[in-house]
Amino acid sequence: MASPAEYLLNKILFPKKLLIEQPGIIINKVVQKYGDKQSRFRTIFFFEEIMAELQIKSKPLLKNKHEIFWTKIGYETTKRYFKLGSVSAPPSILFKTVLNYIFNGFKGAGQTFCEDIKINKSIIELKGKNNVVSRLSKTNSISKGITKAVLEALTNKETKVSGHFDENLEIIKAIIQDKKIEYDDKNLEETNLYNKVNFQVNTNKFKETSFKELMKFKKITFDENNKLSYKNQTLFVGEIGMVSLIHNNFKEENLSEDFNKIVYNSTVEVAKKILLSKIIKNNIKEVENIISALGYGIATYSKNKIKIKYPPYSKYGYEFLIPIYKGFIDVAIDKKTKIINKKIELNSIMLEFS
Amino acid sequence: MAKKSLEVQRIKLGIEKFDDLVQGGLPKESILGIMGPPGVGKSIFGLHYLLEGARNKEKCVFLCLDEPESNIKRMIQGFEFADEFNKFVKKGKIVIKYFDYEEYERIYDDFLDKINEEKVDRLVIDSFNCFYDGIIDVKHESNARKMIQKAFRNLRKSNLTTVLILEKESESVLSYNIPYMVDGMISLDYLDMGTIERRLSIPKMRWTSQYKDSVDYEISKSGIILSETEEDF
Predict the structure, then answer these.
(1) Chain A: residue nearest B230 by CA?
(2) pLDDT band at B1, cuts 50/70/90?
(3) Which of the residues A155, A344, B12, B62 has an alpha carbon 20 to 30 A from that of A49?
(4) Could B194 and A219 be called an inter-chain contact, meaning their C-beta atoms sit closer than 8 Å?
(5) How far lies A83's CA from each of A36, A154, A172, A183, A193, in Å?
(6) Which residues on B lie below 8 Å from A216 (Cβ)?
(7) What sign does the dihedral B67-B70-B73-B78 (CA atoms) show?
(8) Do A209 and B193 touch (CB under 8 A)?
């Protein structure tokens, strides 16, 4: 039970979080309870299996860079999120309360690596089972990166993390050091286009399905581990920068093609489990609605072309979305296609298939 | 004696399994809304309601404001209960009145003002949107509000139980506070993921502990068929 002080802090200090969803677009809005400060994040629901496959299949490609690569992903994604949200370090007296608040927020998104938190001065230990993605990939690099970013944001001090897996149990140990943060996060800032392209749009006039409708019709449900899933395929929620940063990092390692291949192949595997109708028209309709409900934009497929309005924008571009759209379409039409034409504009994508 | 007077009398909607969702039936002498987008079967719910009333020897009136007579007749003919329904219409147990969309004000003179004299037990107005849709200026909006409130007052004065068919697409449904004014709301919706799925929910039903979850339903030749609920209720 929360103490009176914690209760008051919850009421005053911690912002209100709202998930605003309309066809094709999901926005995570964080609003200060008292004051006019607010932050908005363009958000998508991503299939766990696709992310896990990226981690698994990238191991032979990245070799001994694999752990650092994925720790960096977790770190940069979280740092970017805090930057977009203008999160700053609280007074040290509130450190424990704010830390618990943040990790509780992660649990809601399927990140259960931080179920159990132990704070002993500058040493923090986290334990948790069934953490989304890492429970499949058996790699807790992302969780370590997230932990490092969170602690550095709350303390403004460099943090060292280590950890391992014990069966399904993820164990992380973080030590807050008495020195300034080394990482320069200016490169994680978004441009003005992020707000303009993602949030100044109203898609409620479109007939495509929204996330809320899929929940209402019990197509998206909580599974026995309290994870969100669509037709038994686990989903996790994240700001669009998360996935586009992964693609960007693959690109920096000259592994763009590998990224596309892994994402496409794993999307196909997921799509095969979801698109169960023998009628192509029905599968196409389902794909259009999944794309819309999970926040990937408003999709229309017709005559070998898919057009997506209002895809989730970040400064890293839309390239990482293409193998996802293609994977779903190929399974829907039961044909392995080739992209013969591509048109990418600020708030739309068109792909033409052979 | 005081305890008895607090018991809510209920009447059946006429769709199997529905009445179990609302403690045995709709509250008598209430005003209920059936809301949803086009094509979900709102009018068909209305037909079931009227047919059930006629079977119970109640006087039932169907006010048609959106569709012409030919469309309504064609709709009724599509169901297995058409013969029975039409027999009740012939005998005067179900009275169907047609009004043009733009002549909704006539409804007051022709019907609503005289509703007590008519001794109607069940009334369906399909759709109630005509009272306010298309209003474009403040003067007419103020008139519309007055007419809606007058309609509700008249409907409450009499001893009838009214079902208002409400088009969900209309933003006016919310701006005129209709969901707040009615005693109950049955919300219908559909999902098109290649095959159409329909679900109903009962977000509001005064004086009733209604089923809190939503329920699948189908439209067939028998009319509306509800699926089994997920738990005993």
Answers:
(1) A218
(2) very low
(3) A344
(4) no
(5) 18, 12, 24, 13, 16
(6) 189, 199, 214
(7) negative
(8) yes
Q: Phi first, then psi: give them for residue A43, nearest 5 degrees.
A: -125, 145
Residue A96 banded pLDDT, cuts 50, 70, 90: confident
ipTM metric: 0.76
For residue B191, the chain A residues in CB contact (below 8 A) are 209, 213-214, 217, 219
Q: Which residues of chain B make contact with A219, given a CB cutoff of 8 A?
A: 191, 193
Name the least confident of A8-22, A194-208, A276-290, B112-126. Answer: A8-22
- Phi/psi at B162 (5° precision): -110, 140
Identify the sign of the CA torsion A108, A109, A115, A118. Answer: negative
Which of B210-215's residues contact partners 24+ apart within 8 Å by CB, and which partners?
Answer: B210/B21, B210/B22, B210/B23, B211/B20, B211/B21, B211/B22, B214/A216, B214/A217, B215/B17, B215/B21
CA geometry: angle at A84 spanning A91 and A316, to 5°?
A: 145
A48-83 burial code (b ≥16 CB/10 A, e <16): bbbbbbbbebbeebbeeebeebbbbbbbbbbbbbbb
- Would you state the structure tokens that stand for residue A338, as one six-digit string? 């080739």
Nearest Cα to Cα of residue B130 among B152, B159, B90, B99:
B99
A157: left (phi over 0), alpha (psi -120 to 50) or beta: beta
CA separation for the pair B85, B97 (Å, rounded):
15
Q: Give the Cα separation of A64 and A108 in Å (integer).
A: 32
Tokens of A230: 């669509």
- Binning pLDDT at 50, 70 and 90, where does residue A12 land? low
Q: What distance in Å separates residue B195's CA from the closest CA in chain A?
A: 7
| Under 8 Å between Cβ of A235 and A48 | yes
Q: Which amino acid is at B223?
A: G
User: What is the spatial distance between Cα A272 and Cα A292, in angstroms, rounded to a whole number?
Assistant: 19
pLDDT digits (tens, 9 = 90+) for B40-61: 999 999 999 999 999 999 999 9
Residue A209: both structure tokens together: 């399905």
pLDDT digits (tens, 9 = 90+) for A23-69: 999 998 887 666 667 888 999 999 999 999 999 999 999 999 999 99
8 Å CB contact of A217 and B192:
no
Q: Give residue B200's pLDDT.
A: 95
Question: Residue B81 — pLDDT band, cuts 50, 70, 90?
Answer: very high
Q: Closest Cα of chain A to B97: distance in Å?
A: 34
Distance CA B143, CA B134 (A): 13
Using the structure block, give the residue that is written with the tokens 């752990």: A67
B197 chain-A contacts, CB cut-off 8 A: 217
Q: What is the pLDDT of residues A220-274, one digit of tens each?
A: 998 877 789 999 999 988 899 888 999 999 999 999 999 999 999 999 999 999 9
- Cα–Cα dist B82/B94, whole Å: 13
Residue A327, token pair as written in the block: 């994977």
- Going by their DSSP bridges, the two strands B196-205 and B215-220 should be labelled as antiparallel
